[in-house]
Amino acid sequence: MSVETQKETLGFQTEVKQLLHLMIHSLYSNKEIFLRELISNASDAVDKLRFEALSKPELLEGGAELKIRVSFDKDAKTVTIEDNGIGMSRDDAVAHLGTIAKSGTADFMKNLSGDQKKDSHLIGQFGVGFYSAFIVADKVEVFSRRAGLDASEGVHWSSKGEGEFEIATVDKADRGTRIVLHLKSGENEFADGWRLRNIVKKYSDHIALPIELPKEQAAAEGEEVPAQEWEVVNRASALWTRPRTEIKDEEYQEFYKHIGHDYENPLSWSHNKVEGKLEYNSLLYVPARAPFDLYQREAPRGLKLYVQRVFVMDQAESFLPLYLRFIKGVVDSNDLSLNVSREILQKDPIIDSMKSALTKRVLDMLEKLAKNEPEQYKGFWKNFGQVMKEGPAEDFANKEKIAGLLRFASTQDDDGEQVVSLAEYLARAKEGQDKIYYLTGETYAQVKNSPHLEVFRKKGIEVLLLTDRIDEWLMSYLNEFDGKPFVDVARGDLDLGNLDSEEEKKEAEEVAKSNEGLVERIKASLGDAVSEVRVSHRLTDSPAILAIGEQDLGMQMRQILEASGQKVPDSKPIFEFNPAHPLIEKLDGEPSEERFGDLSHILFDQAALAAGDSLKDPAAYVRRLNKLLVELSV
């Protein structure tokens, strides 16, 4: 190695220091993963060179045979991983190896918990697998030169995984990157050909380029040791191009970990070859756990795109809708141009056809998971349910299919878990029930105990309980399922249709007519606070309730608009009362208009609180209530 120049010592970014501390002291019970991570990075570097060389063949520098080499030195206690990929300049090395230069860094660090399993998942997901080298090494050296730069512009980066790293400029004849791990005491098992071969076969057999190790050979007695020979130890073919019958589950799982930067097996996958008008291969995965940036809709997402086995881009987002942004995988097309760009992808009609087919493929995969592995699907829903609820608004063509995948809590269950499908709800609906009833609210306790459910409990009618912030917005796009309309039990004038007998309907009409005077009296008392006062068909136990007008926004949508700084349209609730309740009977018989007014407002405010709303004038409510209590105690 030639003399180093421009040598300097730099400090790691704070986040990297925390990451290294975790790596060195508490992370990875499975140490051999370091090799998988470094080979995965090398594979990405080769993919990038192959793509850039399409427009700049001179970057290959006469060496078009792309590969990764893994070697070891038992005496020096080192393991070396070398690739002839795109390589790094000095600036690249500082940026990539000294900082976590990615949006969401603060969220990433906030999510690190010290729990080995959880943190290892996040670290891989964040694409910082290079630092896993420090699991087995107490010193790491990187020698690299970016393709196209002069041999004198090589870079030597080294660190002991503490607070700083050294970087210097060196001569490097070949493009690409060589990483030398100086093994810690007690980690000598990795300076062994048999051990390294097994790790490569176990984790990296799917890598679609040759991974070479030194050929095991010994000299016959009295002969010189033969010159170093290399042998390919992995299959070195693109996994997604092979027939499904030839691929083991373990291979699919390891390939997912490679492309998804994940440490857990996927929940499910779908591997397909499409021939005909369009020709492409796809391999799609459903992760077992949500990424930490799932709810950042602008976060990078998408599939790895290959064109005729040549890697073109990471995170090609045009092949799946946004609500399926958690799906990982590969799509390899024979119909696209190799110089395709993100802008071209957004306009290409071929992409629209592929997107439609891939979306259906994912939804079919989820249907199969829900049907065959309900417990697994329950875990999927906990992680990705809120994102799936974005689907009906974004994907009109598949609205019914998405609706079938949704899960809800209901009055049928006591634990508040979202496990009820719409098909299950309809299968156990009451005879004559032609609607799907639901109620939205802030918390499960609030909606479960809502007075709006009283008539439904009395008649044994199941109601879906929706408490996610997105639910009211979701239901504005989800009008029906299997031909049955959705009905918000807190909205408008409740009509139970065939679930009410003719006698019940007639009795309700008579009760409403006999209380017309009380309706007018309460309306005069509450004035502009309400849009309407009427006898309730919803209540059996409570004295009063507030209903929402058919066209008015519910509480969830109002809060979403307020939080985003938008103007919330004015609306007034409907006040409904239960004339059979003792409090209403006393109210009806109250001769004092002042006292009648106070009682009416107290009932109105209590109904607002029961609905989970805040009072517009809490002091007035307290004053009226205290006045009433004083009168009762006299």
From TrEMBL:
Subcellular location, record wording: Cytoplasm
Classification via Gene3D superfamilies: 3.30.230.80, 3.40.50.11260, Heat shock protein 90, C-terminal domain, Histidine kinase-like ATPase, C-terminal domain
Main localization of the protein described in the UniProt heading: cytoplasm
InterPro entries: HATPase_C_sf (IPR036890), HATPase_dom (IPR003594), Heat_shock_protein_90_CS (IPR019805), HSP90_C (IPR037196), Hsp90_fam (IPR001404), Hsp90_N (IPR020575), Ribosomal_Su5_D2-typ_SF (IPR020568)
Provenance organism: Pseudomonas extremorientalis
Region (C): 560-634
Listed SMART domains: HATPase_c
Presence of keyword Cytoplasm: yes
Keywords: ATP-binding, Chaperone, Cytoplasm, Nucleotide-binding, Stress response
Name of the protein in question: Chaperone protein HtpG
Gene this chain is encoded by: htpG
Subunit structure comment from the entry: Homodimer.
Biological role: Molecular chaperone. Has ATPase activity.
The Histidine kinase/HSP90-like ATPase domain, residue ranges: 30-187
